[in-house]
Amino acid sequence: MLGNLMVNIVAEAVDAESSRTSQSTTRDELNLTSSTMPNLNSRKRKLGYFQFCLNFARELWEFRHALITLTSNKLAKRYQRSVLGFAWSLLNPLLTTLSLTIIFSLLFSRDPKSYGAFIVSGILAWSFIRDTLCAGCISIIDSANFHRKMRIPKSFFPSVTVATEFTNFVLSLLSMSALVVGLGIPMHATLLLLPVAMAITTVFVFGLTMILAIATIYFRDLSHIVNLVIGTLFYFTPIFYSLDQVPEKVKVFFLLNPFYYFVNLFKHLIYYGTIPSLFEWSIAAFIAFGTLIVSLFVLRSKENDIVFRL
Fold first, then answer.
1. How far apart are CA 262 and CA 266, in angstroms?
2. Deepest of 29, 35, 135, 148, by most Cβ within 10 A of its Cβ?
3. How many domains is the chain built from?
4. Verdict on whether the full-model pTM lies above 0.70
């Protein structure tokens, strides 16, 4: 049922796009078979990088209605016939926070209430990054049938994954904020800058998701490796401890972890109530947009080859 609905949604978006360029194009012509798609892609001229970027943005904009609809459907499908519904998405970070708070508040002699807020300020951003990358790795592979049958942007389904997890992230932040207020922990005016931190983090996550999704097409074991690596990086990211507690001689290894710079923004704004320095904003933005630029280079170089590998 959901598969048919997705086909109809994407097909309608394709029809809307094609009607602006050719009045004679029909749905049957767009529902290409796997045998005709390679020929169509092989005739596609490779655009210059900047022209490709403009075309990339234009295609995503034209498919925005399909993206919004599929995102809504994925969220609805995730909690369909579930007793707790959206609460399930909160249980994992909540239980992780509770476990870490009980254990490390005793080890570090910290106030459990304050230490719990300290962990929450970083773990929600971490969960957004982790969940998006793990799901995004296989987003193009899982949508292979759609790419074989119709001309849709190769970035479309990774974008759906990012949009789905971002929506989940926003709802989790709102829910956790209500919980923090209920515990009597003060809210800071710096929360007004959260949308900026979220935007920078989303750019980074989108770029890295695109790179991993394309790489997984060529190396199918990559999705399992990503899960293992991200699970390990959790302990190398200052979430339940601060970077100041790391010995100087090994601190450089923690600073090489790109996830730290994004989690750090949220800790400043949510827990400490301070505005990150210009350097902290700059390095996070540099990593985010650098990753996006690289992802577009990768997509441009492999776009015409992807359908052959699916």
1. 7
2. 135
3. 1
4. yes
